[in-house]
């Protein structure tokens, strides 16, 4: 049986960089393209960051620049966490790898429509590119196997009490994706906050001694510093790679089917993922929501990925 084709839509971002690292080399997934959106930083920064990560890891994967802002709301970025570049910490060689000329939304449509098999779409940033692609060509939904996203929470947010950053940054895009009728798995703060990259984890990965482990260590030392300053944690939660770890080994997460709705009309609670955990509303389940994580298994998957470089 061949590998499952996937597109990673991201906004690098330290944890997005690790998601790229995991997705590019494993026995389960074939990463056919990286599409980039504005989110953790502006589109120029996030595209450059994706290119730098691919070049540093010697990955021959095409990178496509996508939407530079959300569908409706004003733009927000996460400079307090990821720095002015969006990927502060590592020092990269002069950038030679170039982005593709094709716009990310056009690429998503083309790749899906031309594929003989269904493709998994993973989003680790605002869902703008995917939502726009589905609006532009609704037929692509027939070619999407599933959507796996890092975003949302059924408990407390991280930019407001109600909302997680990726959903808050473009609630309308998330609304379109959650109402697409496609299988969707939400990997939210409820589980990603349990995968804290403590200094002991950084030391463990440093001992691997590959170019990927060096990049990981450089990324995490800055990430942990900013997370300590903003949230008070000794280890930053490694949000985005959990989506990839789940696809590599679904037993890393416990998921629960629920009916979920994206709040886009409230001022106080814009971007909240209202997940009916107890099935009060008796509505059809439209999403699988991650509710627990095997952190030991997750870090083993990260370690295995770092050793592949």
TrEMBL record:
CDD domains: nuc_hydro_IU_UC_XIUA (cd02651)
Pfam family, one: IU_nuc_hydro
Record domain Inosine/uridine-preferring nucleoside hydrolase: where: 6-300
GO MF entry, a single one: hydrolase activity
Keywords: Glycosidase, Hydrolase
InterPro entries the UniProt entry points to: I/U_nuclsd_hydro_CS (IPR015910), Inosine/uridine_hydrolase_dom (IPR001910), IUNH (IPR023186), Ribo_hydro-like (IPR036452)
Name listed for the protein in its UniProt record: Nucleoside hydrolase
Organism listed in the record: Aequitasia blattaphilus
